[in-house]
Write a structure and sequence with these properties.
201 residues; mainly alpha; two-stranded antiparallel ribbon; extended
Length: 201
């Protein structure tokens, strides 16, 4: 009778490592299951905060509270890492500049809108072909490039329209891919946790 191989787990792992695996791996797997099951809601919540803070900044700066004014200034400075913040290309609220330029505000708002709309069609929407995606983002590329090289000056309407097209097109491209990836990871985790298979028909 052939010898049965000794399980690798029993002999090659230290007691400390075994205890760690028994206690924390189920927690990590549970967290991963939660994220893969609710990734869209988590992403939309993050986008809401990220796109909302630049608008909150001028509102806080226009208020009477010194703490609020300081917080609004801190938000404005923090968002310099994401945007040029040129005053002539930015919106103003109550006399204070929004922490994003008009185009960036449109892009991130459109990404949030795309994420919210995706929740209604996530099980049947497929990513566009790359030629269609390129066509949708081309207006922003033309508008931004011609402005950058000094050929012409854009206006807020064009910046908002082209930024919105870019944001919605990018959401359309990326979100179905994320949906498939999250579903695959979740299915793998559920199999690993011993979820019962569906009964045979």
């Amino acid at each position: 009778m052939p010898n049965t191989p000794t399980p690798l787990y029993d002999h090659d792992l230290s007691p400390r490592r075994r205890t760690f695996d028994e206690r924390f791996l189920p927690l990590m797997e549970g967290f991963a299951l939660f994220v893969t099951s609710h990734w869209l809601a988590l992403m939309n919540a993050a986008l809401f905060v990220f796109s909302g803070l630049p608008v909150l900044s001028p509102i806080l700066e226009a208020g009477d509270s010194p703490v609020g004014q300081t917080l609004g200034s801190v938000i404005f400075v923090a968002y310099r890492a994401t945007c040029h913040q040129l005053p002539n290309r930015s919106f103003f609220i109550m006399g204070h500049q929004v922490a994003w330029c008009e185009r960036d505000a449109a892009i991130w708002t459109a990404l949030l809108l795309g994420g919210l709309l995706f929740g209604f069609v996530r099980h049947r929407l497929r990513s566009p072909d790359m030629w269609l995606y390129a066509l949708l983002i081309l207006p922003m590329a033309i508008d931004g490039t011609t402005q950058l090289i000094g050929f012409r000056e854009s206006n807020w309407e064009l910046r908002v329209i082209t930024g919105t097209l870019f944001g919605l097109a990018s959401a359309w491209l990326v979100l179905p891919i994320l949906e498939r990836g999250m579903n695959e990871v979740r299915a793998s985790l559920e199999v690993g946790r011993g979820s019962p298979e569906p009964p045979a028909q």
